[in-house]
Amino acid sequence: xxxxxxxxxxxxxxxxxxxxxxxxxxxxxxxxxxxxxxxxxxxxxxxxxxxxxxxxxxxxxxxxxxxxxxxxxxxxxxxxxxxxxxxxxxxxxxxxxxxxxxxxxxxxxxxxxxxxxxxxxxxxxxxxxxxxxxxxxxxxxxxxxxxxxxxxxxxxxxxxxxxxxxxxxxxxxxxxxxxxxxxxxxxxxxxxxxxxxxxxxxxxxxxxxxxxxxxxxxxxxxxxxxxxxxxxxxxxxxxxxxxxxxxxxxxxxxxxxxxxxxxxxxxxxxxxxxxxxxxxxxxxxxxxxxxxxxxxxxxxxxxxxxxxxxxxxxxxxxxxxxxxxxxxxxxxxxxxxxxx
Length: 340
Ligand SMILES: Nc1nc2c(ncn2[C@@H]2O[C@H](COP(=O)(O)OP(=O)(O)O)[C@@H](O)[C@H]2O)c(=O)[nH]1
Ligand SMILES: [Mg+2]
Prior knowledge:
This protein has 340 residues and is an alpha/beta fold. The chain has three domains: 7-66, no CATH class; 85-263, 3-Layer(aba) Sandwich (Rossmann fold); 266-339, Ubiquitin-like (UB roll) (Roll), CATH 3.10.20. Helices cover 34% and strands 21% of the residues. The protein contains ten helices and 13 strands. It has helices spanning 7-17, 22-35, 43-66, 96-103, 147-155, 170-181, 218-230, 254-263, 293-300, 302-306, and strands spanning 85-90, 121-127, 130-136, 158-164, 186-189, 193-194, 202-211, 241-244, 266-271, 285-288, 310-314, 322-324, 334-339. Strands 1, 2, 3, 4, 5, 6, 7 and 8 form an eight-stranded mixed beta sheet that branches. Strands 10-9-13-11-12 form a five-stranded mixed beta sheet. The termini are far apart. 33% of the residues are buried. It binds guanosine-5'-diphosphate and magnesium ion. Guanosine-5'-diphosphate binds at residues 90, 92-98, 110-112, 116-117, 139, 166, 211-212, 214-215, 246-248.
């Protein structure tokens, strides 16, 4: 039975995905439950939401209690940072940690033996004057999937699925990752979405990274991999946007780095204190394309949104110093004075 989820529900789930703290998560989960159409088709999802709400409450309590672990499986919470988040996944030795090391300031252990990475590790990838958060994860195999990885995939902006082309076993190992995720309610897809028919099923936008292209046999293996999936249905990696890379060769990663930033669909806003001559060019705010002056005010401080009088804009779409109201749609690189 289709769940017929409302726009408000979807907006709440979107905000839940982007929550940075358990308190924020709790707030959006409660709104999701309130917005959920109540009928037989959503019984299961309602029950799940209630469990999530109670787990999140426990986590908040545990934090207050001081340093104790939260609800089971939630111990690896990585707070969202930067303009967006991408989670790196794949089989053992695919090059996940190498990718994190090449693209970010992080220094994960990169090694020839599998299962080196036992905990998720974040790093910040620079893009012009902002950062994107990348998270390296332990490998997924036929009989090994950390439950928190599923949670991370569900709430991330983008997944980066890595195929190891440096070894004949890489193709099968990549298939195992997809097959394993197919046993959960969190799947990889060309675009992020919620399933309207199967309640609770969620798809996360994924880039497919064919890694170790420098290996002499890599190109041949990639052809074999594609043949394996040519007639397959389901979460088919042939549908994902593809990048042929060598994770240890930064030059091959440039198109990927740009695409990761672009897919986040964010804009940068420089704020200017009305009392000062210069805007703050050091730390732009990042917002989503389509966001308004009111959204910016909310990001700065709750009271700013409440007391917003007007804004002054220096940007590409308006004359310099134009006065605008809360519904003004922001453009990338706008300089904004917020007046309260
Ligand atoms: N030739 C080659 N080796 C790579 C590449 N990326 C990673 N490796 C090697 O593959 C092995 C596993 O890499 P690692 O990042 O630890 O894999 P992980 O288990 O997925 O985190 C290491 O020996 C890396 O040096 C690549 O693009 N080309
Ligand atoms: Mg690793």
